[in-house]
Fold these 2 entries.
Entry 1:
Amino acid sequence: MQKKGYILKGRIIDGTLAAPIERGAVVVDGERIAWVGELDALPHDHLSRGYQVIDLPDRSILPGLIDAHTHISFGESRSEEENALYTPVEFRTAKALYYSKKILQAGVTSAFDAATAYNIGQAVRDAIDTGMFDGPRFTISGKQLTTHQGLEDSFPNNMEFPPGQSAVLIKTRDDLVEAIRFQVKDEVDAIKVSGSNDNLITPDALGSSAFTFEEFCIIANETHRLGRICSVHARSRDSALDSARAGFDNLFHASYIDDAGIEACLENKCVITPTLTLLVNLIDAKQSNAGASGSSAFSREVEAATVNLRRAYKAGVPLLAGSESGWSPVPYGQWHAREMELFVDLLGMSPIEAIHANTLAVTRLLPRYGHEVGKIEAGRLADLLVVPGNPAKDIRILQRPRSFDYIFKGGTPIDRTPQAPRVRKWYERQKTFLNGVYEFDEETGRGRLTL
Ligand SMILES: [Zn+2]
């Protein structure tokens, strides 16, 4: 009788910094990897177990990608208003399940979700983990803790903080501890803090930090006491420095980190997840010159990040690859592998280092199951990609998931059938009844729409 399993013969890139094994084999038994190594060293008893043997000439076998920065609850929002105000939570959750399958079909078998709206992230994670829907293995951060100086407190002071915003507004120090305990009760895996503002929302709002050093310490201590990890949105120099000094596990962006911040990261073993894809996509899409968001601010930030993050990486701070999928510049299922190309082109990494940054390196953000994924190693879950060619030579191969031969999650090839495009409901985006002003032109005696 055939046992459920596979012997995959091809080039192996295992998720570590090791050179590829050019003629390798991976044995998959049930949901786990049973053996990996040089093909010539494959023990004979594996061959007699009835596994399906698959020859993969000029193919590479890698761990499934781990995206270190997604927002599964954001639904490809184009604005803060769309994200915070529109679409009932129930429909948002259904959308998130639809999008989860797209992420998996892009070869992303695990993901770190870096702030949720409502408790959508936890529901999606659990719906996937209990076998009801297809998607990556998610690690979920709660709503971002923010202040009036942080990202997400976007609306005027004369209105209430919207419950649909993916943040909770912190007013006093006691609120900090309460918010963390509240979220842990709601089954988050991680605490997320909005440590600075963001050019996306407020132009050049990079000067200061949204929390004091003492407040960052309170957050880190309480989060760690409750067995969770904490990350921070830290575009400004001060927010990167103070959160790293306070012992945060992960800094998002850190574009303006300086030597003192780098030193603090090394001392406290903080990692940085730059998430350059969002900025570069925004610049490329030329969508950034409307309203408050100037494209020059994004370009300046990419320039600064290129210098500062190179220095951080050289000094020994691990960099993790995340896409920020969930906002409209980074739609689900399409850009998850671009960060690796940017790490190579902008930060000077080798393709093998970039693949490591998008696989094994991210497992430190996955406290529940990080030891079970991210590397092709006996005993770990068989979350694997089989791709044409050699991504150690051309990293962009990984951006074309439809060309992959296989995507395995837990030893089973996933359903690759593309989902039908969904239809947008009228209540999702905005309540604009005319996109422009219908002006009267006295010359012609007619109306004219101006934008
Ligand atoms: Zn984000």
Entry 2:
Amino acid sequence: MRRLLVIGIGVGDPDHLTFQAVAAMNRAEVFFLLDKGEAAAELVRLREELLARHMRRPYRIARADSPKRDVAAPYKAGVAAWHEARAALVAGMIARELPEDGTGAFLVWGDPALYDSTLRILDAAREAGAPAFEIEVFPGISAVQALTSAHGIVLNTVGDPVIVTTGRRSLDDLRPDATLVAMLDDGSGLRALMARGDSLDIWWGAYLGSPDQMLAAGRLSEVGEIILERRAQARARKGWIMDVWLVRPAPPPPAPQPDGATRP
Ligand SMILES: C[S@@+](CC[C@H](N)C(=O)[O-])C[C@H]1O[C@@H](n2cnc3c(N)ncnc32)[C@H](O)[C@@H]1O
């Protein structure tokens, strides 16, 4: 039976890779790399570097240009059509590149369970007629973990929930009792939140784990514009950006005391 290993590789720092991931990589004879175009070239390069550094057995890279998402289509319909096209491509690659008892692998950015479609696409590839295969999944350091560790903060406040969402949904998903993490934002989610004017604290990170890592934190009303400006400049300089941010209600100001002192 063919076997596919879906391996989380972290989000930019080669040292994010776990020992378990390295061991899994060394079981694979072929790695499937879907190139999403210029902006993602650096992310493909990191995968190639990880392979060159850690592989102790001969391996092949099966590469294909990923179909493009129709950005003019309504978001969910556009993503569904894109996944379908990728599933057909992956089904063909598995049939061509992986022998009957072979082991192949996908190196997934971050963690395969968080805003990544590899597992969904493999399910769809089965339905699209790929030869039978089994899947094993290996966790990776996600952008959320890279963000909280870079800032040295706890993800949640005591007993309160955490909502992980997309930039486009961040305004709708904001709750007064929860920490909200936004991924895949093009800046408009953050701007919408700033426009609403709630008293929020923000922790932001871009290119986390890489030499280009950028961090900012503070009261949203004070650092929001600075973040958006740094974001725009970095995007213009590099041609692409990946950033993630976390907000939660700012703690109430200290209450004034009769003796003139303030107590938190
Ligand atoms: C398609 S999702 C992939 C998430 C990934 N599977 C994970 O576990 O973090 C891409 C989004 O993850 C976030 N992201 C991924 N890598 C990042 C990095 N190095 N720095 C900041 N954000 C990152 C950004 O919000 C980006 O838009």
